[in-house]
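User: Can you model how zinc ion sits in this protein?
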Amino acid sequence: MAMLKTIKVTCTGAAHHVNEIDLDKLLKPVIVTRSATPPQIQEVPARSVLHCQFCPEGKVVITRAMVEDATA
Ligand SMILES: [Zn+2]
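Assistant: Here's the modeled complex, given as structure tokens:
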């Protein structure tokens, strides 16, 4: 359950900075209404766009497939 994962994503800026993305910040926990629900459910957004940590023009795009690859 406590899987702390980061993925590396290059920004769209000219310098292609490598940003380390903390998946825990990307996943939003789903409210569990029944105790029978498996505990590992977290909702991965289909697509997240973050700002590059190193340059003002770069964006970092994280898709659900990338997250699933990293956590598989
Ligand atoms: Zn950048």
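A couple of observations from the model: The radius of gyration is 14 Å. The pocket of zinc ion is lined by residues 11, 13, 15, 17, 52, 54-55, 58 (CB under 6 Å).
User: Helpful, thanks.
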